[in-house]
Amino acid sequence: MKCWKAALASATLTPMLEIEHLSLSIPSASGPKPAVSDVTLSLESGRVLGLVGESGCGKSITAQTILRLGEHQGIERTEGTVKLDGQDIFTMQESELRVLRGGRISMIFQEPMTALNPVFSIGAQITEVIRLHLDLTKRKACERAVSLLTDVGLQQPEQLLRQYPDSLSGGMRQRVLIAMAMAADPDYIIADEPTTALDVSVQARIIDLLRKLQREKGLGMLLVTHDFGLVAELADDVAVMYAGHIVEYGSVEAIFDHPTHPYTRALMDCRPEAASRGTPMPAIPGQVPAPGAWPAGCRFAPRCRWADAACEQPVEAEAWHHGGHWARCIHVAKSTKPLELTE
Amino acid sequence: MSLLSVKGLCKSFHAGSWSGKDHITRAVDDVSFDIEEGETLAIVGESGSGKSTTARIVMRLLAADAGRIALMGEDITYLKGKAMRNMRKHMQMVFQDPFASLNPRMRIVETVGEGLRVHAPEMNAKQRRERVIEVLEHCGTGVEALDRYPHQFSGGQRQRIGIARALAVSPRLLVLDEPVSALDVSVQAQILNLLSDLQNEQKLAYLFISHDLSVIKQVADRVAVMFAGRIVEQGNAEVIYASPKHPYTRALLDARPVEHPAQRKKPTDIAVRSEETVAKSGCAFRLRCPYAQEDCEAFDGALSTDDHAFACLHPLKAES
Fold first, then answer.
1. Has residue A334 got a pLDDT over 80?
2. Which residue of A has its CA nearest to B221?
3. What does DSSP assign to residue A15?
4. Spatial separation of the C-alpha atoms in residues A111 and A101, rounded to whole Å
5. Which residue in chain A is spatially nearest to B189 when comparing CA positions?
6. Which residues are registered as beta bridge partners of B224?
7. Which of residues 77-136 of A touch B (CB under 8 A)?
8. Of A34, B21, B100, B235, which has the fewest CB atoms closer than 10 Å, so is most exposed?
9. What is the C-alpha to C-alpha distance for residues A164 and A146, in angstroms, rounded to an integer?
10. Least confident among A243-257, A293-307, B13-27, B130-144
């Protein structure tokens, strides 16, 4: 039934999703502009990697490129590779990509309100995905749809199959989308801001659900988010992205206990949870530079209080490292003192 | 005399459906609150709780079915025409989406100065421009912004412009509907600091609508928690965060993501029991409430009259 899985079993490679030195450009009126530069990440099955950053730092297009989405929008790879179990996805044919997308790697999008087609029933949309990837009869596909919907905690799944998206709340739609993502038993899942559009109590339940599915099925998950709370809930490892490249990488404990890059520290400090009423919140002055308008040296330098003349030189990824924890900063010694970033 | 006093506000929406049945949603149901000068009252609730509808009614953008709104002692519930226009300069609104709430075809100087044309007709173009420069600088945006268009600004800068537009006519009350939820966390902090500075300088009162308890904790003097159109708990912000009385408030506080991975909780039962169910009779929250008992079915949802008011027959005890 799943020939690629058999092929995989005979291969000797460790199953792994690897992004190597990936650089991407986005189109603009004045020609392509670099949006992501030299991103290297790897995702093992059974682990959750949080990719954190503000809007415009390139985290979403990095995630989309794993499935080669966004090419029709003119997002181009200028360098690097994405390898799934050693196979370069940029050499894949369209037919192989169809197996890859939703079969081996699934995606959960941010907007549960727009990701479902309003004119097809929930049943039609789930069985479409199931039958695309698995060789099942209609009846068997319906049975599988029912069990998937049960897995994601939806009650009365048989009735739900006949309903249309407009009769579902945001939380229920997100569960349906998660069920669809699980339809073909993928090995990896890319969750792009999976709870951003949801209420806080619904978010808590979706977090529980993602954690349960990820553990039970041993999924590798790439969690793209701007929210350190979500990272604290779900991630094993964390990559912090700023202006198109990774500025810090480490285990979730390392990142929360010893945030090292000034950007990571500043971002954590300006979470409203971290501040107290009456005192000004530590904000980061200025804003993320636009794609292509990055400073030549350290890209965070214009907003960093520790920046000096030495920061005008490009900084290597592992300028500071300690075990598996590294930061792209030459002034770590200075910045690990308490930061007082204000506007 | 309170700056703003709202009493018994009600608003229902009718929605016809294909099946011919007429659905009535009680979006706002008997909502009352006061805001004093220089004070921030935050209304928190999930989507559909009626918090934005309340804000819109207070601004007279929607007509109330019942209830009274008094601004600076004057009843504005049914004011019309010129009388209402005169009152509007005392209350201004800041909207959630900084991308949709600025007219893309108007330059910033026109957008920010538009209120002055109505509320300060005696000003000439030069005076208006000076006033616009003054408020923009107050809001942390430079003079170079004046002749640009909204698309040339980032989300945080647009929200500063939205605040400047509201402040141009020197209001006493700002109604802020989710003013930072569309912004990145670093920019969010900048805007919250700006709001706090402006409040201290100008003794502004804020009606702050948000779904984010962490943000509210930063800004609010008092908090009103809304559920299914009703205020279920209201009182001093610190008291409510430290010892909520209503189980819904507790549930909202507990649902926030943890701050550190070491605090992760054990996964709970994931089945959707009643994720967004609202009871039709009795206490609206009882179907989701872990403390619900039989008498909750007959509870009328009335708010107690204490300083720390709550609408619950079985309030939570203070944590020891």
1. no
2. A277
3. P
4. 19
5. A283
6. B43, B234
7. none
8. B21
9. 15
10. B13-27
Q: Which helix (DSSP H) or strand (DSSP E) does residue A107 occupy?
A: strand A105-108
Nearest to B208 by CA among B165, B217, B257: B217
Provide the shortest C-alpha distance from residue B21 to chain A (in Å): 15
| Residue B320 reports pLDDT greater than 60 | no
Look at residue B165 in the predicted model and tell me its pLDDT: 95
pLDDT of A84 > 80? The answer is yes
Lowest mean pLDDT among A12-16, A146-150, A286-290, B162-166: A12-16
- Give the 3-state secondary structure of residue A242: strand
Q: What's the whole-number average pLDDT of chain A?
A: 88
pLDDT at residue A315 is higher than 80: yes
Pairs of residues, one from chain A and one from chain B, whose beta carbons lie less than 8 Å apart: 139
| A335 min Cα distance to partner chain B (Å) | 18
Cβ atoms of B45 and B211 within 8 Å: the answer is yes
What domains sit in chain A, N to C, each tagged with a CATH number?
A: 3-235 (3.40.50.300), 241-335 (no CATH)
Residues contacting residue B316 through CB under 8 Å, at least 6 positions apart: B243, B244, B245, B246, B247, B250, B291
Residue A13's pLDDT band (cuts 50, 70, 90): low
Task: Name the residue facing B261 among A209, A253, A273 (closest C-beta).
Answer: A253
What's residue A1's pLDDT?
A: 46
Cα–Cα nearest to A271, from A289, A284, A286 = A284
Q: How far is CA A211 from the centre of its chain?
A: 15
> B318: pLDDT confidence band, cut at 50, 70 and 90?
confident
Pick the residue from chain A with its C-alpha nearest to B188: A283
A266/B189 CB distance under 8 A = no
Task: Supply the pLDDT for residue B18.
Answer: 63
CB nearest to B184's CB, from A152, A208, A226: A226
The interface predicted TM-score of the complex, written ipTM, equals: 0.81
Kindly provide the b/e burial profile for residues A269-294, where b requires at least 16 CB atoms within 10 angstroms of the residue's own CB. bbbbbebebeebbbbbebbbbebeeb
Burial level of B71, CB count in 10 A (0-12/13-18/19+)?
buried
Query: Read out DSSP for chain B?
Result: --SEEEEEEEEEEEEE-TTS-EEEEEEEEEEEEEE-TT-EEEEE--TTSSHHHHHHHHTTSS--SEEEEEETTEE-TT--HHHHHHHHTTEEEE-S-TTTSS-TTS-HHHHHHHHHHHH-TT--HHHHHHHHHHHHHHTT--GGGTT--GGGS-HHHHHHHHHHHHHTT--SEEEEESTTTTS-HHHHHHHHHHHHHHHHHHT-EEEEEES-HHHHHHH-SEEEEEETTEEEEEEEHHHHHHS--SHHHHHHHHTSPPSSGGGPPPP---S-SSTT---SSS-TTTTT-TT--GGGGG---PPP-SSSEE--SSPPPPP-
